[in-house]
Amino acid sequence: MLIDEEELRGAILGKLKEWVGVLPDPDKPLIGVLGVGSETLSANDIVEQVEQRTAMGDEFVQHWISLAVNHIMTSTLLREDHDG
Amino acid sequence: MIIMYTEYDAVTGVLANYARRLNQELGAAVSRLIAPPAADAREAEVELAKNPSPFFFFGHGVRAGLIAQNLVTIDFNKTPHLLSGRVVCATCCHSAAALKSAVGHGATVVGYDGFVAVFLIPPYSAMLEDCLLAGPRELARGGSAADAVRRTRGELRRAARKLIAGPIEDQVYAPFLEMNANLVKEL
């Protein structure tokens, strides 16, 4: 089974929604992003950015996919304490 | 060295802590700390006019300039001579655009080409500190602007790789580190 980018995006969005669902305060500001004032992103805002496919939301997903794939490709083959 | 920082909202609060840490680390190498409440535009301009030391800024920025504590924009594209021949590193949004003209006056600039994501809560804010201070630390050691950019990108990407291997709570922050890594540049 090959997974295309759209499915990966859907998987990330699903996981983000699960994460938001267990946070005590999903509207708490987590990340400051803008140049002036106190513009911030909460967990709910991040989900919204991804869901609405904003430029930032799309870039966020692209980087997440790239990092996750890179993590797989650079993973070690055996545990450090593997005893053969 | 001159360190200037502002502190008036959540983002500048985090960056102010980074600036204070850098100031503490550099000790006597810092010839002037321009800090709130005196970190206004006039104070910065007067100091820069008489002190040719490298200049490190932490706070908000827009394409038109760096935002002082009194919320006045210091437009270095109108006063690039204030940065003539010096090393400048501005940890804020749009600092690459805000400091562009200074390069024509012999300044060496390390800045960010867009919106910088700043993590507001621990442990992520502490993790970002080591990333965003990597450039200023490299410059303070006498490294080149290219080295400072390489160090900053390296730290940001190392942190991103670490976070992507963790739970979703960690993974969410990793893409923002990649975005920041793509923004830092030397001029």
Account of the 3D structure:
- The complex is a heterodimer of chains A (84) and B (187).
- With 84 residues, chain A is mainly alpha-helical.
- Helices cover 55% and strands 8% of the residues of chain A.
- Chain A has 3 helices and 2 strands; from the N terminus they run H-E-E-H-H.
- In chain A, helix 1 (5-22) packs antiparallel against helix 2 (43-51) and helix 2 (43-51) packs across helix 3 (55-73).
- The two termini of chain A are 31 Å apart.
- The model of chain A has no long low-confidence stretch (mean pLDDT 88).
- With 187 residues, chain B is of the alpha/beta class.
- Chain B has 9 helices and 10 strands.
- Chain B has a 6-stranded mixed β-sheet with strand order 2-1-3-7-8-10, sandwiched between helices.
- The radius of gyration of chain B is 15 Å and the shape is globular.
- The relative contact order of chain B is 0.14.
- Classes of the chains: A mainly alpha (84), B alpha/beta (187).
- Chain A binds chain B through residues 15-16, 18-19, 28-38, 40, 43, 46, 59-64, 66-68, 70-71, 74, and chain B through 9-11, 14, 60-62, 67, 92-94, 115-121, 124, 160-161, 164-165, 168-169, 171-176, 178-179.
- Strand 1 (29-32) of chain A pairs antiparallel with strand 9 (118-119) of chain B.
Annotate the secondary structure layout.
The complex is a heterodimer of chains A (84) and B (187).
Chain A: H1 5-22, E1 29-32, E2 40-42, H2 43-51, H3 55-73
Antiparallel strand pairs in A: 1-2
Helix pairs in contact in A: 1-2, 1-3, 2-3
Chain B: E1 2-5, H1 10-26, E2 32-34, H2 41-50, E3 55-58, E4 61-62, E5 65-67, E6 73-74, E7 87-91, H3 95-98, H4 100-103, E8 108-112, E9 118-119, H5 124-132, H6 134-140, H7 145-164, H8 168-171, H9 174-183, E10 184-186
Parallel strand pairs in B: 1-2, 1-3, 3-7, 7-8
Antiparallel strand pairs in B: 4-5, 5-6, 8-10
Helix pairs in contact in B: 5-7, 6-7, 7-9
